[in-house]
Amino acid sequence: MTTRSVLVVTHTGRPEAVRSAQLVIKRLSAAGIAVRVLENEAREIGCVGVDVMPGTAVAAEDAEVVMVLGGDGTLLRGADLTRGSRTPLLGVNLGHVGFLAEAERDDLAATVDRVVDRRYDVEERMTIDVTVRRNGSVMGTTWALNEASIEKAERERMLEVVAEIDGRPLSNWGCDGVVCATPTGSTAYAFSAGGPVVWPEVEALLVVPISAHSLFARPLVVSPRSVVAVEVLEGTSRAVLWCDGRRTLDLPPGARVEVRRGTEPVRLARLHLTPFTDRLVTKFGLPVTGWRGRVRQPSHPSPAADGEASGGQRG
């Protein structure tokens, strides 16, 4: 019989997350499930009887689920470990908004029980693959779950870029940067930059200029089959590429960033089939006072029913 195993990823900089990790490990171990922790987190967590794993994709291989204790940043770190193995991520929000998390800190014990009983669903989230070229040569490749952002590296200077969609030039922008996001990332950096909120089941790519000095600088929603490219113009200031706020690459003038739909999705474990609308309202504290819902029409008895009620006599 194969031993079940769960990888626990923790924001060890938060004492509450460490205490939560200790509780999770205790409950999972009591249920006979082997628990893995990352070697750079093991000392802070201080639990015995766990499997200490390197902080690489090997840690998530053959694991049943990865429980992430922290905020969205911690979950994005967990996504680095699981993307190749397709192990689902289950986030417990110990941060602020926590849009990617499925459970809150008050539900921790119940969440562990759901994992023990395998009572969760799994959904896939679209990612993006990113290629950086210069003079035709590949400078680097990376990926993102939320977004790839091309940003100016010097605060006092504007960045000059030209955007391209499916091999055709779209517009030049003098700007602070450009965000290329997934629907999942529409509530992250792209949202802060003025982009639209896109429901997760919508497959699309978002292009959002940041503080652009241009008459045409609206957020764009393009096909998931499109290839978006942003070129840093020669003679402009240096730029930097950030992917999910974690992976970075310097972009010299003349660099070209190509963004396309990712070949590998990220899988998220879901405990509740909550509509995304409800998640928006809860996470952003949106006012819904006065909502009455769909107006229900009163049911009227049929003429036959009326006749039966009066003994079947008419006239």
UniProtKB/TrEMBL annotation:
Subcellular location: Cytoplasm
Pfam families: NAD_kinase (PF01513), NAD_kinase_C (PF20143)
Name of the featured protein: NAD kinase
Region described as Disordered: 292-315
InterPro entries given in the database record: ATP-NAD_kinase_N, ATP-NAD_kinase_PpnK-typ_C, NAD/diacylglycerol_kinase_sf, NADK
Family that this chain belongs to: Belongs to the NAD kinase family.
Enzyme Commission numbers on file: 2.7.1.23
Transmembrane segments: none
Domain of life: Bacteria
Binding site for NAD(+): 72-73, 77, 146-147, 157, 176, 187-192
Keyword Cell cycle recorded: no
Catalytic reactions on record: NAD(+) + ATP = ADP + NADP(+) + H(+)
NCBIfam families assigned: PRK03372.1 (NF002892)
Encoding gene per record: nadK
